[in-house]
């Protein structure tokens, strides 16, 4: 199925390249320049082919992002062409290929440039929740990170720098909600990142659950999931796989196995023996079990996985197909709050558009 979708993207990119080549040629066509090109058509073709060759070169070095960029530019150019056609029909003036091309290039730079920035700049996103339950302190500060996919937009050193920013907000608890590493992550970066997590000074510690990428899909890494768990444990990070810990006698952290695991426990099994008077935080990589989680009466569920939608229109398809209950942000069902983060990095795609950002989340929970 994945190969079929990717094949569709490749075909769309090839069609996009042909379309862009014709538009680049048109872009060079103005009344003033027409005379100049008359006996130099091959030069015109060559110049129009240069950006196409640059895009093909991008695909050679980075197929996924090259394909994404081609499709985006082609769609933007197509849209400006349609608008240009409408303007031409209304004003009954000459074709606006030059201006349509200029606007298409400008919009592509803005759209993809901002997408690159939002994927590589990490923002802090704050939430404020209240509870009737005794949390053992006036205000509990939880920091949630997910989807670091180490090696995508930053390596182990970059992860360490982000942990310094997280340390500066003085968290009581730090949770890592899956897709911490990916198939491309190196052992050196994994170890460096585990040490960075281990260096965090918190009141109640650092907790981790795995996501669909953490165990690796292609067996290409120079470390195993078990190696990583050993490194996390060595650095005092608590790995939770369908396990619950009680901290300070007031707060449960319930860490779930990822939804991609066949034998994961359901919410009833995980909560049936717990004291409902205590504050309950669930860590679940994929936001897909909201109703069952709300029914058990847990207080807070923290998820990642969606990357905030990553790129338009992926954001809306996740919820439309039922793959995710929510793409981004805070939602309340019954007495349960759900926070889905867009992640501190991204997956293979190096752009975040359509409102998605890279972030770490700071949640202040106050006793009402
Ligand atoms: Fe994921």
CATH fold assignment of the largest domain = Purple Acid Phosphatase, chain A, domain 2
Q: How does the overall form come out from the CA principal axes?
A: elongated
Question: Which class of secondary structure composition applies to the elements?
Answer: alpha/beta
Q: SSE order in H/E notation?
A: HHHHHEEHEHEHEEEHEHEHEEE
CATH class of the largest domain: Alpha Beta
CATH superfamily of the largest domain: Metallo-dependent phosphatases
Account of the 3D structure:
- It is built from eleven helices and twelve strands.
- By secondary structure, the chain is α/β, with parallel strands linked by helices.
- The chain has two domains: 2-118, no CATH class; 122-367, Metallo-dependent phosphatases (Purple Acid Phosphatase, chain A, domain 2), CATH 3.60.21.10.
- The longest helix has 29 residues, at 63-91.
- The site of fe (ii) ion has 6 residues, from loops.
